[in-house]
Amino acid sequence: MADILIKNGLVLTMDKGMLQGEVIQDGAVAVEGNRIVDIGATKEVEQAHKGSERVIDAEKKVVMPGFVITHTHMPYVLGHNMPVDVSQLKSFWDMLQKMGWEWLEDITTRDGIYAATRYAAMKMLKSGTTTVCELVEGPGAIPGALNSSARAIDEVGIRAQVGYEVTERVPGVSILERMDQKNAEKAFEENLAFLNKYPKGNGGRIEGRLGVHTAYTNSAETLKRAREIAEDSGCGIEIHTAEIPRQFLVEKYGKSAPMILEETGLLGPDVIAAHCIDLDDTDLEILSRNGVNVAHTPMTNSLGGNGVARVPDMLDKGMNVTLGHDCFFTLDTSEYLRYAYLVHKAHRANPILLPPFQAIDMAIGNGARAMGLEKEIGSLEKGKKADILVLDPDSPSPVTPASVMSWFTMTFKGSDVQHVIVDGRLVVSDRRMTTVDEEEVRRHCLDEAKALWRRNGISI
Q: Do 217 and 79 share a domain, yes or no?
C-alpha cells in the first residue's frame, strides 16, 4: 500500500534525459514516505499497491519530475513593478548599482526576505518548480538573512539549496573607489552558520551552498577562502560570472572573470556559474575544462541589454547548461523555458539550435546534476525522492508520447500544473497550496513591498 498512487497518466520518466527517458502511456507512480517505490504500467502498479492512502487519477494528464531552477533571488520580488525613474538606467551597470543594490539589496530586511521568499516559493511551486538554488543578498539583513529564507522555504515546501552572497562591496560606495574584506568575512560567517545547520546531504529539503557575488567584487584572497570553505563542507558554490561586459574586468585586472576564478582555484564541477554572457573562446574553454555548470538566465540577460550567452557553443562542448531566472518577471517556469528555447534561434538565425529536449533537460535533469542532486531528483525512478508534477494540459491538440516534447515549448504554461508533490508531500492540490494560506502570503509580501518602496521615497 502506497501513501500516494498516481495512475492512468502519460508518465515521463526523464531517466537519462527527455529524449531517452521512458514514456509510459498509461502509467502509474507509487510513493511511500518521501520516495518513489514503484513506477510502470497502471495495471501492474495499481495491483501491487491496492488500498493506497491517496489516489490521484491522472487520466489525460502528464506525470513528470519537477522543474529545477538553478539561479534565484527570491527577495527580488519586492521590487517587481516598482515605479522608479527608469531614465537613470542607461546600462546594465546602472541597473546593477541602482535597481539591484541601492533600490533593493541595500534596504532589504529579514522580514522582507521571509515574506518575499514565501511568495516566490509559492508561485514557483504552483507553476511546477520544485527545486531552486537560491542566492540571498542584503547586507543590512545579516546576521539572520539565511534563517529568514530557510524559515519561508520550510513553511512553503519547496526544495532548495541556499547561500548568502560573499562580497567585499561597501553599500553606497562605488566598487571602483573602495571595497572592504570585512564585509566578505561577515558573509562567510552567515554562510558557515547556515552550513552547520543545513549541511550538504543532510537528507532534508534544505541544504546550504556557498554564495559568492562576483570576481570583480571580491579579492583573490576572498575567492581562495571561498574555495577552502566549499572543499571543507562539500557544499558547492554559486557565483555570478561574466554578466557584465568582459572588458570591465580586463581593464581593471588584466584578466576576464573565468581567468581570475581559475587562477584563484574557485572553479570546479561543484560550481554553478550564473549568466556567463560575455565570454570569448578562452573563457569558454576555462569553464569547460573545469566542469563548471552554467545557470542560463536568458530573460534577465535580455533585460540588462547584456547580449545572448553562447549556450549553443557550451552545449557543443558538452557543458552542463541549466535554467535560472533571478526571480524577475512572472516566476512561471514555462516562460523561461520557452524563451531559452527561442532566443538562440533568433540570435543566430538558425531554427535548428536548441531543440525542445535540450531546453527541457536544462530545467530538469541538468539542474539536478548542477546541484549535486542527480541521485535524488531530476527523473522519476524507484528510490528517488518523490518530486512529481501532474499537469492537466490546456492544449488545442492531443498531448501524446509523440507530441509532448513539442507541447512543452509551444503550448505549456504554469496554469497547467494541477498537483505538485515535493519530498513525498502533496504541496499543491488542484492548483491550490496545501502548506500555506495563499492570501495571507500575498498580503504579507505586499506589505513588505510597500515598506521597501517607501524606503526608496515612493508614496504608496
A: yes
